[in-house]
Amino acid sequence: MNTLRIIDFHVGSGGKIAGIQKVNAAGQQVDVPVFLINGKVSGPTLVVTAGIHGAEYASIEAALLLGRSLKPDELRGRIIVIPIVNMPAFQARSIYVCPLDGKNLNRVFPGKPDGTASEQIADWLFQNAIKQADYYVDLHGGDLVEALIPFTIYHASGNEAVDQRSKQLAKVFGIPYVVRSETEGSTYSAAARAGIPSMLAEAGGQGLWPPDAVGALTTGMNRLMRYLGMLDGPAPEPLPTQTLDKFVWLRSEHDGFYYLDVQVGDSVNEGQQLGRVTDFEGEILQNVVAPVTGRVLFLVSSLAINKGDPLLAVGA
Predict the structure, then answer these.
(1) Which of 55, 180, 191, 261 is the most buried (most CB within 10 A)?
(2) Average model confidence (pLDDT) across the chain
(3) Can 4-243 and 246-315 be said to share one CATH topology?
(4) Distance (Å, rounded) from C-alpha 226 to C-alpha 168?
C-alpha cells in the first residue's frame, strides 16, 4: 500500500504515527495535531476532522479517542484523523471564529493560500488532507453558547452520484436527523464539490463533552467504518432517520438580551413566536418567529446576543 503522508509525517503499510504539524497562517505558526493510521490491508482512505470550531468539545474528544484507539492491524485502508484543526480557537476558547482574523473557518473553504489566517488554514487542510480522501467526515457540536440535538448534514452539490453517496454516509452514521444543506464555504461542501462523498455530524454543546454526546459520534464513526469495510464486524443495522430538506437559520438584528420560549428539539409551526431580543429595559427589539414548520435543531443559550449572531435553526 502507498505511504500515507501529511507534509512532515508519513507512515507505510501497517504503521501508525502521531505528531504536531506546523501550519503557517498568515505569518503565524499554528500547531495542528495529526494521527496517520495505515492499515495492513488495502481499502479506502478516510479523512476525519474535528475542532474546526475550537470549543465544540464533544466532537474534539470523539476524534481524539478515534485517533488514539485505531490500530493498523485492525484497519483495512487508511485514515487521517485531525482532532483540532483550529488550534488558535481551541486555546482561546473562542466562539464561532478564529481569533487570528475573526473569521468563521467553516465558511471559507476550500481556502486561499494567500488569504487571511483562516483562509490559509482551510487551504492547508483541503490541499493536504481532504483531497486525499475517498470519504470525508467532519465532526462538530454545539459551540460554547449552543445547545443542539444530534444531527448529520450532507451537501447538495449538484453532483447526483456524490450527493447520494454523501446522504448514505449521513444515514449510516445512525443519528436520527439527516439535514440536506446548500451552505457554501464549509468543509463538507468543499469536499463534495471536489467529488468526495462527505458529511458533517453534530453532537454535544455548551462547553461540555458528556459521554452520550461523545458516544453518539464514536458509535457513528464505528458504524460508518464497518459500512465502508474498513473495520471488522457486521454491517451496521439500519436505524430510522428523517431527512430534513431545509435548514433555516435565524440571526439577531440587534445587540441585546436574548429570551427564548422553546427548547432544543421542540416542534414549531411557521409563524410561531419563539422568543425575543430586548434592550436592557426590556423593550422588544426583535420578535423571534419560526420561519418554517419543523424542529429546533440548535439554539443559542446565551443571554448576551450581538447583532449578526445566530439565534437558532429549524430543520424542516
Answers:
(1) 191
(2) 97
(3) no
(4) 13
Query: How far does the chain reach from its first CA to its final CA, in angstroms?
Result: 44
In CATH terms, is domain 246-315 a member of 2.40.50.100?
yes
Tell me, what amino acid is at 285?
L
pLDDT digits (tens, 9 = 90+) for 24-75: 999 999 999 999 999 999 999 999 999 999 999 999 999 999 999 999 999 9
φ, ψ of residue 95 in degrees (nearest 5): -85, 130
pTM above 0.85, yes or no: yes
Quick check: 47 and 197 in contact, CB under 8 A?
Answer: no
Q: What is the CA radius of gyration of the chain?
A: 19
Distance CA 110, CA 191 (A): 8
Per residue in 185-203, pLDDT (tens digit) is 999 999 999 999 999 999 9
DSSP H/E element including 122: helix 117-128
Nearest to 256 by CA among 232, 229, 285, 235: 285
Neighbour-count burial for 80-91, b at 16+ CB within 10 Å, e otherwise: bbbbbbbbbbbe
Task: Name residue, grid cell 490541499.
Answer: 127
Written as nine digits, the cell of 312 is 437558532
- Across the beta sheet with 304-305, the strand order is 284-289, 273-278, 256-260, 304-305
Which pLDDT belongs to residue 299? 98
In this predicted structure, the answer to whether residue 241 has a pLDDT above a threshold of 60 is yes
**Residue 294 predicted with pLDDT over 90:** yes
Determine whether domain 4-243 maps to CATH 3.40.630.10: yes
- Specify the pLDDT at position 183: 85
DSSP per-residue string spanning 16-59: EEEEEEEEEETTEEEEEEEEEEE-SEEEEEEEEE--SSTT-HHH
Domain extents for the chain?
Answer: 4-243, 246-315
